[in-house]
Design a protein that fits this description.
Blueprint lengths: L8 H51 L4 H4 L15 H14 L10
Keywords: Membrane, Mitochondrion, Mitochondrion inner membrane, Transmembrane, Transmembrane helix
Organism: Podospora appendiculata
Main location: mitochondrion
Length: 106
């Protein structure tokens, strides 16, 4: 009676090893991202937000958010108007402008 050869062990071992490696990598990657990176980034962002608030308070600005146009960056090229205010002003300008329809021209 002959013993049958063991087949498929290499493939099974390879799939098991890859699955375990990817699973452990995913777990530790998420642990790093949400346990270390995100809290540190949020802490840094809060620090710079407080720093900008303090800078605008010292400069005498009534509302630092309004002065920045609602954005937290010093090099913005936006105006103090929000997109909603801009849209309302555009609609008012269109209402006051004479409407020359496409039908009659002199």
């Amino acid at each position: 009676m002959a013993i049958q050869p063991i087949t498929g062990m290499m493939r099974r071992t390879l799939i098991l090893d890859l699955s375990i490696a990817l699973g452990i990598g995913f777990v530790f990657g998420n642990a790093f991202w949400y346990g270390y990176h995100m809290p540190r980034t949020n802490k840094r962002d809060d620090y710079y937000k407080k720093l900008e608030e303090h800078t605008y308070i010292e400069a005498g600005e009534a509302s630092w958010e309004r002065a920045l146009g609602g954005r937290l960056c010093m090099h913005t090229d936006r105006t103090d108007r929000s997109p909603i205010e801009s849209r309302e002003q555009k609609q008012q300008q269109q209402q006051h402008a004479p409407d020359d329809g496409p039908g009659e021209q002199d």
